Amino acid sequence: MDTFASSTPSSSRELIDSVVIRFAGDSGDGMQLTGSQFADSTALMGNDLSTLPDFPAEIRAPAGTTFGVSGFQVHFAGHDIKTPGDAPDVLVAMNPAALRVNLRDLKIGGLLVCNSGAFTAGNLKKAGYDKSPLDDGSLDAYRLLKLDVSKLTLQAVEPYQLGTKESLRAKNMWTLGLMMWMFGRERESTVEWLRQKFAKNPHVADANVAALNAGHIYGETAEMPSGIGCYQVPKAKLAPGVYRNVTGNEATAWGLLAGGKLAGLELVLGSYPITPASTILHTLSNLRAYGVTTFQAEDEIAAICAAIGASYAGALGMTSTSGPGLALKAEALGLAVATELPLIVVDVQRGGPSTGLPTKTEQSDLMQALNGRNGDCPLAVIAACTPGDCFDMAIEAVRLATKYMTPVLLLTDGFLANSAEPWKIPDITTIKPFPVQYRRQPEGFHPFVRDPQTLARAWAIPGTPGLEHRIGGIEKDYDSGNISYDPDNHHKMTKVRAAKIAGIADDIPLQKMEQGEDSGDLVVVGWGSTYGAIAQAVMGARRSGLKVSHLHIRYMNPMPRNLGELLRNFKKVSVPEMNNGMLVKVLRAEYLVDAQGFNKISGQPFKITEIEAEIHRMLGVQAQAPAPV
Amino acid sequence: MTPLDPPSTPLTRKDFTSDQEVRWCPGCGDYAILAAVQRMLPELGVRKENTVFVSGIGCSSRFPYYMNTYGFHTIHGRAPAVATGVKLANPDLDVWMITGDGDGLSIGGNHLMHLLRRNVNLQLILFNNRIYGLTKGQYSPTSLLGKRSPSTPMGSVDNPVVPAAFALGCGGRFVARAVDTDAKSLIATLKRAHEFQGTGFVEVFQNCPVFNDGAFDHFTARDLAAETQLHLEHGKPMRFGKDNTKGLRLRPGKLELEVVTLGEYGVTEADILVHDEHNHTTAFLLANLEPPAFPVALGVLFNSAAPGPSFDHGMHEQNRQARAKGPGDLNALMRKGHTWLVEPEPT
Predict the structure, then answer these.
(1) Can you spell out the DSSP letters for A421-469?
(2) Could you tell me if the ipTM is greater than 0.85?
(3) Mutate which of A190, A267, A269, A298 to test chain B, going by most B C-beta atoms within 10 A?
């Protein structure tokens, strides 16, 4: 927001191209709702946007503490954007703890909106301040807007006689109203949402609407300090079509339903609640009409085993989880590989090891996904790179699982799961179906009779006369499917299981460059949710004349046939990952290229500037001075 | 014709026998159970293609390979979860779950608990030989206190679980017991489990001649059986003994069973407790009876009079309700809520 510096009268909005706002407050302050409502109204204004929720693992951490701070960042612009933004231009801090935790990210010269009403002696102490930073000049580097939002909210909702505690809950709506004024957002969608949410308590809805409007009116009428005005962000040029905001977990759930429909199969989801995957279970549990049966199992193991049982019986079994849950499912995944049953496993990765950082994002399950089982146990692994891509990759998971009779592991992560982006809603009637054929003919049947092309075994389901058979985790004879302990047969079966998965490479798109030429000085290779940050960083580097390309892998196993060749076309290969170096090891091992890892393991997505700096470091060029604020 | 209709031509024991060589140790009690099941299935009038055997890991879990039906030999302890998935996908399948004391009560105890409380509509046969066979003789969760085994050379110090009591405690609505070699009562009990709409739990005392030979001889030996076995029949007095003169009654003033002899101390037929298989409390008392003080209670210990709908029935009923207005339209769903139209750029 480089044009933010000048003061303008609120009657004429200043045009700016992009803004990053972070709403931060106590986990009970409703910041997630505030942020997502702001994002919704922003989408309706036709801006491109990206969001990043950041919340503590505790449901209600002690009020006022730094570890109870919850944040929601929205980046919106009049052009195509790919990340929730690096540093906020605007920070809304609802209490001292929120200021303490988030101030270091705010751009110098950025706008800081603080609820002075919450800067009480007690709250200051809990946040570790000896005296109020609002008054001691320590915030002089920012444009500070001090408002007693608590008091202003109480005044606004007074007519509704809610009691102080209940009334104060509306202060997030007051703040939202102010920010909507500042950036010219329409309030209608939020009003509608409030009326729906509080349909049973209309006076609570009225109070919240009043607070929202009061915040807006405050902006219109109050004399703002110099340097603070109101702004307009033009519409982004998006491809024509009907759009909505979608989070990765929503898109995953819908993609699975779409996949089931395209395959002509009933779905059975076995799942056990785990952050940040649970919303896939919740979403699908509400969509039983769409051909899915959802089962909250007693644990992660039962969840996948029920899915395997369902696939055995002719439905498509699926399970959704996160890292610790995937660890528990390892043995059952081996059973699905050995029995060659279709199965979808969605792993919404989070910080590890062990319980790790349940609400933070990471990409550290790649090795577990590729190798985390006993025995030679290959399966297909694919990874989504944006919230909307989760939909496409979920469909792809279903296609591969049913065509190749194999478990498919779909990797997403906490960032994709919870962040939203405008998404051009696909028309599933235009997607090519891939109907599944069960085996019906008894002639020549045995349970491991294979399709010569795909090497997939026949799917013969209980209830089919003449095809009664037994399968299990014990090695099977290649020619009869019966139990076999024969040494040569085990060698052959191990090879054929591997060849089946490797052969999928002929059935997936060749690797394309996201940006740049097929050869050059440096290729930045990403996978998963780092897509946006890498894309923006490479775009910037290319604008400054560097010979950098961006390649993003969605098929982790097998990898595209031409990947090694592409990598070898570049002098240098950089692999940014939100882990301590996983894809980089795979690339080095598979393709003998001198790929260099660039790792961030903080539970937070990469910033564009971090990847830009790494590009400059790799190429040995001086970074350009950052644009003046 | 539905999958639940009997086959058009009656089947025989041979029809249910697979071509695979049975590989249990000579003299294993599993042979008797296999034979009983293969004899029983034709009598039930079920279709082979509609019958599924699901097992975990262990000697008993090899069972499905010997049945000429659908079969799934899964992983250790997880058969209840796999079987639940089978029933979620297709509730019309007739599922038999095979497990053992180690598979079902040790590594798989958690899943067994949830299967029972959910009341998934299937039959479960728990082969209890009080030992780990396939791993060569370690003690199991049903081994008696002090059991010497390769892993407990000084004797085990943990108390065993009583499978039937466990099943009752987990909310099992049908709990029964039988002895491997008593084909007649085993078949009768399995048939009752099959009739039950929900989880029909049947524990079978099964002898392991290699690692725990004679574990149940104290009540299964021919000369002892009459004095040590109580064969339960709903509505009949609980009598046993060589001359059928012994019986169980409630100890006056206490919620306890005691053994009495007809004719002694003025005990008459009227004093003997009549078996009410719908009574959960007496079922629990019966499950815990042990020789030498008591006989072992066999047959149907508990058969809930109001089992409620099975889990799979409940889930499919919800599916039916959710789809009452026709299948959901995914395109419409994705367009619900806030959407906006981006118009093509004017050219």
Answers:
(1) EEEE---GGGSPP---------TT--TT-B-TTT-PBP---TT-TT---
(2) yes
(3) A298
